[in-house]
Structures are given as structure tokens and as C-alpha cells.
Amino acid sequence: MGKRVALVLAGCGVFDGSEIHEASAALVHLSRGGAEVKIFAPNIEQRDVVNHLKGSPTEEKRNVLVESARLARGNIQDLAELKASDFDALIFPGGFGVAKNLCSWAVDGKNCTVNEHVSSTLQTFHSAKKPIGLCCISPVLAAKVFPGCEVTVGQDKNIDGRFPDAETASAIAELGCKHICKNVNESHVDKANKIVTTCAFMCKAPLHEIFDGIGTMVQEVLKLA
């Protein structure tokens, strides 16, 4: 029997939703690992809608669950319906939608608030000692909800211009968590909290290296499940 994994999306598209390549990579690696996956997203309005061609906000209004359904090929449920007892593990791809829709990190940084259903889902899995995997910016969710945990968003310095958001590591440390520096093709396992993180597109790297890094995260999550 394959592990049962819940994957939570934040919309569709890197600038206002889930990062599509990260979501796809996680789903491919989960499939390869024999996991049974169900996809969820909160039924809320997006913080903003970005024209991905121009890179600028529009006046449109979109719903996170409806937009996430694009990535889920329509097979998706409201996050409010997720029951941790039905699953062995939980995974969050990244994308600015995590920092805009699942929490307010994009606006408030370390002082952000986390969506109530996202927070309760994280806490329920954690309390049940079930592993949680997060990539790209989504480790900030764990840093906010679980003070003292260990996560990675890559490096804490902008080495060779490859880690332009390295200051995120400092903000994580200010929340009382430990940031672990890792390369893009690696992940970090916080064994005490069963939290597995990888930096993905927080690093400017070839797509296959990001894909491989997400693969290590998925593998570690499935090992812990």
C-alpha cells in the first residue's frame, strides 16, 4: 500500500499562486514513490492577480481553490475538508501564492499571519507526528507555526547571485528557528519535528537541479511516513 499524501496548493502561477514546476515535480516524485495523492487548496480569494507576461498586478479577482484546480486537473478539495487521519504525510509546493494567500509573509515578513485552515492543518499533522514537506518559500509556514524548528530556504548569503532572497534565512532565525544552509539539489530533515524542506526556486538554478532537490524532499517525507 502506497503512502497517502495530501498536497496543498496556493493558486496557479509563480507570482500569485503555486509555482507550477514545483507542484508538478512533487507530483511526479510522489507518483514514482508509489504514493496515493489528494490535492487541496483553501477556498479563499487571492491576495492579488498578476499578469505573468507583464509581471504586474491586474484588477482581476480570482479564487485560490478554483485556480489551484487548474494544476490538479480538476481533482481537488477545499482545504477545510482535509482530515489528517486520512493521510500519512503533508506537502506544500512553493510560489508567491504561499506568501500571499496561505499567509501574509509577502507583506508582513516574520510578523505575518497564517491562514487558519493552513495553520490548523500543519498543527494537526505535526501533533500526529506525521511528516511535513515544504519547498521554496513554504518553509516559512513551518517557521511561523512551529517555533524552534529547523528548515532551509537555501543559503543565508547571496552566493554568486544565485540566492537573491537569502535574507529570508535571517527572518526565519528571528522567529526562533534554525536555518540550515543547503544546496538546491539537497533537502534538510528536522528529525525531531518530521519537517523536510528544500529551497527549489529560492535558488537560481537549472530546472533539473530544482527537480532533483524536490525529489530528495519527497523521498525523505515518504521515508518518515
TrEMBL record:
Xref: InterPro entries: Class_I_gatase-like
Recorded superkingdom: Eukaryota
Alphabetical list of SUPFAM superfamilies matching this protein: Class I glutamine amidotransferase-like
Database matches in PANTHER family: ES1 PROTEIN HOMOLOG, MITOCHONDRIAL, GLUTAMINE AMIDOTRANSFERASE LIKE CLASS 1 DOMAIN CONTAINING 3A-LIKE1-RELATED
Family matches, as NCBIfam families: PRK11780.1
Name of the protein described by the UniProt record: GAL3A protein
Organism in which the protein naturally occurs: Calonectris borealis (Cory's shearwater)
Lineage of origin: Eukaryota, Metazoa, Chordata, Craniata, Vertebrata
Gene that produces this protein: Gatd3a_1
